[in-house]
Amino acid sequence: MNSMIYKNEEKFRKQYGMIAGVDEAGRGPLAGPVVVAAVILQSGDKFAKLNDSKKLTAKVRAELFPIIKQKAIKYSIIEVSPAQIDEMNILQATLWGMQQAVAELAEKDIFSLIDGNRVPKGLLGAAEAMVKGDSRFASIAAASILAKVHRDNLMLKLHERFPEYNFAKNKGYPTKEHMAAIRKYGITPFHRKSYRPVQQYTFNF
User: Fold this and answer.
1) Is the dihedral of CA 172, 176, 179, 180 positive or negative?
2) pLDDT, tens only, 8-48
3) Distance in angstroms (rounded) separating the CA atoms of residues 142 and 95
4) Which of 67, 119, 134, 173 could form a disulfide with 52 if both were Cys (CB 3.0 to 4.6 A apart)?
5) What ranges in 2-137 are assigned the alpha helix state H?
6) Which residues, including other chains, have CB under 8 Å from residue 138's CB and lie 6 or more apart?
7) 62 Cβ contact list (under 8 Å, min separation 6)
8) Which of 22, 24, 21 lies closest to 151, judged by CA?
9) What are φ and ψ of residue 156, in 5° steps?
């Protein structure tokens, strides 16, 4: 167990009261949404193996996913569609998703810990950006797991509709196999048309 993520969080909780961790998954893929999660954990709650989702296996993430949702005081999960990403750009779409995720918690007196180096404009309550926060704070780590598992599950559903792209394996990231499929089949309505690697291709579905 990464005990520091709990110690760091308790310091902020003592200073600011209710804490929400906010993180995203899916900024880099060529297809699928970016998913943002916000989580408020109970003070004193600890989860075996909780850590930055990127440091965990898919099996451990899947085990923690329902436990976090069950034990959290509140959580929210926001999907930002490829069309929204194309319209806003990925940075603004991610920040908008974070703002929406915190707003959905509906807690006015809340302090949000935002993974990364930017605090979204219009965020409900006070906040601070935390570089590598998903490996430093328990609630951000929990949010990273909710966002990652939720997005992976969405990509598995897209795989059932578009097996040619093997989204079950690549989750929309620009692997050699994925790029070969784009060259052969074109793009789906769930590809991000503003991303350079797919800009020259057209819908074939």
Assistant:
1) negative
2) 999 999 999 999 999 999 999 999 999 999 999 999 999 98
3) 18
4) 134
5) 4-16, 58-71, 82-88, 90-105
6) 5, 6, 8, 9, 21, 41, 46, 47, 50
7) 149
8) 24
9) -65, -40
pTM: 0.96
Question: What mean pLDDT is reported for the chain?
Answer: 95
Q: Within 13 Å and on the Cβ side, how many CA atoms surround 123? A: 25
CA atoms within 13 A on the CB side of 186: 6
The domain defined by 4-161 carries CATH number 3.30.420.10: yes
Torsion of CA 181, 187, 190, 191, to 10 degrees: 80
- What does the domain layout of the chain look like in residue ranges? 4-161
Residue 188 CA to residue 179 CA, distance in Å, equals 13
- Tell me the C-alpha distance between 162 and 147, whole Å: 22
Q: Whole-angstrom Cα distance, residue 176 to residue 98?
A: 31
Which helix (H) or strand (E) element contains residue 157?
Answer: helix 138-161
Give the integer Cα–Cα distance in Å for 142 and 139: 5
pLDDT in tens, 54-87: 999 999 999 999 999 999 999 999 999 999 999 9
